[in-house]
Amino acid sequence: MKLTRTAVLVKPDGLQRGLIGEIIARFERKGLKLVGLKMVRMNEEMLDQWYMEHRDKSFFKNLKSFMSSMPIVAMAWEGIDAVPVVRKLVGTTLGREAEGGSIRGDFGMSQQMNLIHASSNNTDAEREIGIVFNADELFAYHSVVEAVVYAEGEVEYEGL
Ligand code: CMP
């Protein structure tokens, strides 16, 4: 199976709560590979693109002003089925209903202040990674750990 990528943002509340290390550790422990990492102050234009599906929602303006109020930490993670794997680790949108053991379930109470964003599907993942990362900020490399995270022949490596 092919390795795919997903985008993660640790939102301003996650940054303020000091959860960057905790969040990275959870994805690392799962066996995902970090292929991009940067701190960004998202501007209006980036947020209009990022949240285009929410542009008609009542919370759009508040969401954008919250997301641009301070830096966020953007990541790109790679693995087999990276999108659904990361969404499961993140948990459902509303923190107080999110499953215990998930990031939102363990650390969140709110709908807007839900600590973290994870791409919904592969098309969104590609689009979102393109909004925050330049091509030279994404890295293709062999992870030593992958040799024990996956069985021999389970991963199809392309161009590595
Ligand atoms: P996320 O899943 O990253 O993408 C859309 C974001 O909009 C969501 O996280 C929340 O932060 C926010 N959001 C979703 N629903 C609401 C809501 N009803 N009120 C305020 N913010 C919301």
Task: Note down, in words, how this protein is organized.
This protein has 160 residues and is an alpha+beta fold. The chain has a single domain, classed as Alpha-Beta Plaits (2-Layer Sandwich). The protein has helices spanning 12-16, 20-30, 44-50, 60-67, 82-90, 103-107, 122-132, 146-149, and strands at 4-10, 33-40, 72-79, 116-118. The protein has a four-stranded antiparallel β-sheet. It is globular, with a radius of gyration of 16 Å. The relative contact order is 0.24. The chain binds adenosine-3',5'-cyclic-monophosphate. Adenosine-3',5'-cyclic-monophosphate binds at residues 54, 59, 63, 93, 111-112, 114, 117.
**Average pLDDT level:** 97
Strand order of the largest sheet: 2-3-1-4
Structural class determined from secondary elements? alpha+beta
Number of helical elements: 8
Backbone CA Rg: 16 Å
Number of domains: 1
CATH class: Alpha Beta
Span of the ends, CA to CA: 15 Å
What is the CATH T-level topology?
A: Alpha-Beta Plaits
Indicate the overall shape. globular
Structure described in brief:
It contains eight helices and four strands; from the N terminus they run E-H-H-E-H-H-E-H-H-E-H-H. By secondary structure, the chain is an alpha+beta fold.
What characteristics describe this protein?
8 helices, binds adenosine-3',5'-cyclic-monophosphate, Alpha-Beta Plaits, alpha+beta, globular, 160 residues, 4-stranded antiparallel β-sheet, 38% helix
Protein topology:
Elements: E1 4-10, H1 12-16, H2 20-30, E2 33-40, H3 44-50, H4 60-67, E3 72-79, H5 82-90, H6 103-107, E4 116-118, H7 122-132, H8 146-149
Antiparallel strand pairs: 1-3, 1-4, 2-3
The protein binds adenosine-3',5'-cyclic-monophosphate (CMP).
